[in-house]
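sorry to bug you again but im stuck and you know this stuff better than me. what follows is a protein written twice so to speak, once as letters and once as structure tokens for the fold. mainly i need to know what kind of three dimensional shape the backbone takes. anything you notice is useful, everything is just below:
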Amino acid sequence: MKRTHTPAKAAQPPHRPIVELTIDAVGGHGDGVATHDGCKVFVPQAAPGDRVRAALGEAVRGIAHAEVAELLAPGHGRADPACPHFGPCGGCLVQHLAPGILSDWKRGHVVEALARQGLGDTPVDAPVPVPARSRRRVTVTARCGDRRVFLGFNERASHRIVDVADCAVARPEIVAVLPPLRDLLGGILRPREACDIAITVLDDGLDLVLIGGAEPDLPRREALSSFAEAADLARVSWRAAPGRPPEPIAHRRAGTVRLGGVPVVLPPGGFLQASAEAETAMAAIIAAAAPGAGEAADLFCGVGTFALGLAGSASVTAVDGDGEAIAALAAAVRQSGLAGRLRPRCRNLYGDPLTAAELAGFDLVVFDPPRPGARDQAAQLAASRVPVVAGLSCNPVSFARDARILTSGGYRLERVTPVDQFLWSAHVELVGIFRR
């Protein structure tokens, strides 16, 4: 018999009225949206078509929030969540949405962002699906309580930790290491001490970086080294705070991942696309956009996620401001014999973007900036004569802003393809192809 997930019931203050609502749509952050007395009401864990009894909060400027007290009837947009921790866990907020509703909702993020920039006529594909249990990098939080260690993800809008035994998003290798990692932390964390742990699946094992907490003393280092041996990890490092350089504790293997068929030693905690499947899909879109490109540039290239694949058929200039990433790419280029085809360059593209003159001669430019986008680099691209530009982003809003700069400079945004590598969340990756 098919089970139907019921939204978690929250304890309600007695002064909040209970009302009956019918959910009409999904809001930007994944809440169900209903209308009551002319107000728009946002209801967490509610799906289109649901009829619910809900505790209604006070309306402010025509908007109110409510918490489900009872699911009266499930709607057409509801699905059974894949994870036993859905509800309390803030990691996956929309596992209760049916696949078609979820796909349309994510595509809608992209369509709406483009429309706000006057690009609403751009063809936007249905999101490329990525399978469950495919995410190869996660960051979990640990905190030592009075009697045990809590290890998992924060509750929605809270610092409380949901102690997880499973994760329907993460690769099985990550899930398998959580129980012994919890046991380890129970022996080395002091009462009330907390830290984050970045876990990445590499080709030669797991890479763990502990972030925060007290600097490991000798007993902690010995415990972490023994754990790396027992769990057959590739590497364990400690980082004092985000952005600080990691300190090696137990590096048993190099920490290698193949990108474009080329082995790269990833810096501890270094950036990778969230799933290999999404990376493959995006690389295929880029390759198909300019199959005859002789000269290509990959801007914000990281460790060469797309540059290394392009170097199989084109001469590539790869640029990024992260010195560690560029050093890793340069080492991979030397060892793979690509020195004549791929030129890594360290340059801060925010403060010093490649100019239109420097972009002359490239047949294809790929740019994949962080979430804030690349306004200044987009302006230089808009002034260039590069025939094909492939823009990637995990933020439809900043992508649409940069796309507007390019189209104002004479480019046509041919098509945008969302890639759903951030499963059951409001985030979406995308690739857009621009042509002159």
